[in-house]
Amino acid sequence: MPTSTSLRTLLERSEEMDLGWREVLAKAGAQYVPGAVRERLALDACALVLTHGQAIRLLLSSKLENPALALLRVQHEALLRAAWLAHAAADAEIAALAAPQTDEALKQANQLPLPGVLLRQIEASDAPDALKQGLREFRDIAWAGANSYTHAGLLPLGHVGTGHDERVLGQALQASNAHGYAACMISAKFLGNATVHPSINLVAITHADCMAWR
Fold it and tell me: What pTM was computed for the model?
């Protein structure tokens, strides 16, 4: 675990928050009747967001800071995909991602829009304003840094063997948690239970310190 008490506390509370969300989603999911392909893909993408968040916490707990920061972009792209699937993807694009996993299907799926295009299409869709704002803010504030970590650029190379400032790690963890919250809210859209949305919000409100990342 990290030697910093404040970062350790943030990791513990983040884990507690995630477990709270998962309990809410599991309870709703037990009564979920599988629907259209679009919503099933969106729910799977949301599950990826939460899994990536769990991995980021584990990496930070193990002091594997550069891999944790690199994974933040992967988590962000999973959230972009979830929002796009839920609100903006065309039927043909849904079909491309739902196809059996053959080499040809992979080629077609790899031709789907890149992150910048996904964001523009989400912005033009009926997605909630809060979701659009969160995605836009990450793009404006953190995208360049996330790319650097993903592509072994200036930032990770400058921190090999030296570690990062606690503030940087804390902000990355809070950004990851905010991604998880957004994924839970997208999931709530499809689970069809009126208690899911407020229950997710209640967990978030009682862990507000885990997401005030700016």
Answer: 0.93
